[in-house]
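Continuing the batch. This is chain 6 of the set; chains 1 through 5 are on the previous pages. Same settings as before, nothing changed between runs. Recording input and output for traceability.
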Amino acid sequence: MRGEDGAEQGALSASAVVRRYYAVSLVYALAGGFLAGGVYPLFLRSRGLGQLEINSVLAVYFAVTFLTDVPTGAFADALGRRRAFVLGCALRAASFALYFVSHAYVLFLVAEAIDALGTTFCNGAVEAWGVDTLDQTGFVGRKDRLFSRLAQLASAGAMIAALVGSAVGSIDLAWTWPLGAAGFLAAALVGGTVLREPSRRAAHVDVAGLRREIVARIGTGLRQGVGVRPVRLLSLAGGVMMATWAAYWLEWPILFKDGYGVGVWVVGWISCLLSLGQMIGSEIAARTTLPASRRPQVLSALVIVTGALLSAAAWVGRPRAHDRRAVRDERCAGGAPAARHRLVQRAAATP
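Output for chain 6:
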C-alpha cells in the first residue's frame, strides 16, 4: 500500500497536483463559508451573549492560534500534511457540533478553542503540500499566480456557502453549524483521499523521536521567526491588521440587522459583495507583475487606502449628536427601543 502511494505521488503531473490542490481548498472554503455571511455574531447574540462576550470568544480564537500555530506546523512537517489536514478538519467539525448544542458562555469558549486548534492544523497544510508536490514535478511557473487563483476560488466558494448559510439562518441561525460540520467532514474525506504523500510518511512512528523532532522544529521556527527582522515586522503588521479587521467583522452584521432593519439573508448578500471585492483584488494581483523592490510601497499604499475607507465608513455610520441625546434621554425614561427606532428612521431619511 505504501508503495502504491509513493508510485501515485511520483506519477502525478503538475496539472493533476493543481486540480487536487484546488479541489481540497474549495471544499474547505465551502465548509467555513456557511458562517461567513455574518451569521456568526448574530448566532452568538441570539444565544444571549453580549458584545463584550462575543468579542472575548473571538479573542480566545486568536490566543489559541498564536500559541499552537508553530507546534501544529511542526506536527505537520513531522507526520505529514495530509494527516494534519484531516485531523484539523475533524477538530473543526467537532467544534461546530459543540457550538450547535451550546447555550453557555463557557461552552462557547471551549468550542472556539477547539476550532482554533483545528484551524492551526489545517493552516498551510494544503498550501505546503501543493508547493512541495509541484516542486517534485519540476513545475517552473509562478506559484503566486496559483495562490491568486486559489484566493478567487475560495472567495467564490465562500460566496456560495454564505448565501446558503444566510438562507438557513433566516429560518434558524443554529442550523448553520451542522452545515459547517458536515462540510469539514467532507473536506477531511476529500483531503484524505487526494493529498497523497511519499511512503516514508506512512512508516512506523517513533513516538519519542517524534516528540524530539517536533520540539526541535518548534525551536528552529521560533528562532528563525524572531531572529529575522522582516519576519518580525510582517508578523507585527499582520497582527495589527487582524486586530483592526476583527472588530469590523463582528460588528457590521449586527449594525446592518439592527441599525437598518435588514434580514439575515440581506446580511448574507452583503457578505457576498465583500467576497466579490476579494475576487476582483485577486484577479488584479494575478494579472499584475511588480518588481520585488516596489512591493513594500504598493502594499503600504493599499493598507493606507483600506484604513481610510474603514475610517470613512465609521464616520458615515456614526450617531449624530442629537441622536445620541435622544437615545440617552429615552434610556433615562426607559424608552431605548423607541429612540433606536427614531435613529434608524433619521438615518434612512438622510440622503
